[in-house]
Design brief:
globular, 13 helices, 427 residues, 3-stranded antiparallel sheet, alpha/beta, Enolase-like, domain 1, 8-stranded mixed β-barrel, single chain, TIM Barrel
């Protein structure tokens, strides 16, 4: 063991996330003085196959959403088992955490406890080596900057009263570097705000910082986003494209997809036809969760129709779980995987999910959650693992811009080595 890299102490505390709900923060101190800190995000729209986020269930505190049990699990169960171990053995520590929990879904200790410790260990180890996290995890060759997908219009579970679909994003496909991509995303975001104001809408925002107007039709949202690209002075499709997260599992009711705003119920084939129509009318380059998490037959149909020209991202479908990603690869379903560390529970499992997807030629998109903190681990992971894309919400609100600002600093550190990843599918 390298001198000074053994774990000397472990602390955990309850902090607040961006929705004002409690979440877990973990600190790990090493014998040599290095310290790592990590905070765990929380989702609202969750896949049923995700690792389990543990909550107290005590209605007298935070409406039952407290995480004091998780804090105790970190300090009283995990802490004593990892003190004295080397922080440089990330894989060994993560496997120990998995064994300590002993359940398939991290249900005993909580995926939030396991992930908080796993991330904090990685940060402490990187600090002990005098390296930024992306360089520690990715090595000297880690230099690919992720293309950002900015969620500028929110709906679904992230904006009650908005449109049925969860996210409408802009993708600066023509930007020369990450800094320019951020500039373009922010300019389109503000252009959308002006368009909404001109049309008499309030400028309220959803959980992820995007505007949340009560539009009558879902297509009105993508039309507005496309218009905002033009209003900001960019060529739709060539310079800035559009992506959506349909979160279709949230719409699925007894074999049909219910668009409440439009009083419509579509079967899988009809929904795919809608996506095809949108792709022909708008500069739509990426569709996330275009069908429900268990509609494998529908996903296969969607992939056969659009998979060669549009990015089809599985989130609830794959939930960063290697077995589900492998099933998708075997069945030729989707062509991209959303990567959320808190869906699986450890850094090591996250890395494995990315590697399995990349080996099969699937794109990877690093992702935040709707309930976020100032933690920027996913920004470093995106660069370390050459994921090529990241979505962290709108270019607004501190818990969202923290990730983008971290990437701006990384690009500056990398200097001439940095290059912005292209979109892996046709624009």
């Amino acid at each position: 063991m390298e001198k000074g890299t053994s774990i000397a102490w472990v602390r955990a505390r309850e902090i607040l996330d961006s929705r004002g709900n409690p979440t877990l923060e973990v600190e790990i101190g090493l014998a040599g003085g290095a310290v790592g800190r990590a905070a765990v995000p929380a989702g609202a729209s969750k896949g049923i196959y995700e690792a389990l986020e543990l909550r107290d269930g005590d209605p007298s505190r935070y409406g039952g959403k407290g995480v004091l049990k998780v804090v105790a699990n970190v300090q009283q169960v995990i802490g004593p088992k990892i003190i004295g171990l080397s922080a440089l053995d990330q894989e060994g520590l993560d496997h120990l955490l998995i064994e300590l929990d002993g359940t398939p879904n991290k249900g005993r200790l909580g995926a939030n406890a396991v992930l908080g410790v796993s991330m904090a260990v990685a940060h402490a180890a990187a600090a002990s080596q005098g390296l930024p996290l992306y360089a520690y995890l990715g090595g000297p060759e880690a230099s690919l900057m992720p293309l950002p997908l900015f969620n500028i219009l929110n709906g679904g579970r992230h904006a009650q009263g908005g449109v049925d679909l969860q996210e409408f994003m802009v993708v600066p496909v023509g930007a020369a570097n990450f800094a320019q991509a951020c500039q373009w995303g922010a300019e389109v975001y503000h252009a959308l705000g002006r368009l909404l104001e001109e049309r008499g809408f309030s400028l309220s925002v959803g959980d992820e910082g995007g505007f949340a107007p009560p539009l009558a039709h879902n297509e009105e949202a993508i039309a507005l986003v496309t218009a905002s690209i033009e209003a900001a002075g960019f060529r739709p499709g060539e310079e800035v494209a559009v992506a959506i997260d349909a979160a279709a599992s949230e719409l699925y009711r007894e074999g049909r997809y219910v668009l409440s705003k439009e009083s419509k119920a579509l079967d899988a084939e009809q929904l795919v036809e809608m996506w095809e129509e949108w792709c022909s009318k708008y500069p739509l380059v990426s569709i996330e969760d275009g069908l429900a998490q268990d509609d494998w037959e529908g996903w296969a149909f969607l992939t056969s129709r659009l998979g060669r020209k549009v990015q089809l991202v599985g989130d609830d479908l794959f939930v960063t779980q290697v077995d589900r990603i492998r099933r998708g690869i075997d069945q030729r379903v989707a062509n991209a995987v959303l990567i959320k560390p808190n869906q699986v529970g450890t850094i090591t499992e996250t890395v494995e999910a990315v590697r399995v997807a990349q080996k099969a030629g699937y794109a990877c998109v690093a992702s935040h959650r709707s309930g976020e903190t100032e933690d920027v681990t996913i920004a470093d992971l995106a660069v370390a693992l050459s994921m090529g894309q990241i979505k962290a919400g709108a270019p607004a609100r501190g818990e969202r811009t923290a990730k983008y600002n971290r990437l701006l600093r990384i690009e500056e550190e990398l200097g001439a080595k940095a290059r912005l990843a292209p979109l892996p599918f046709s624009v």
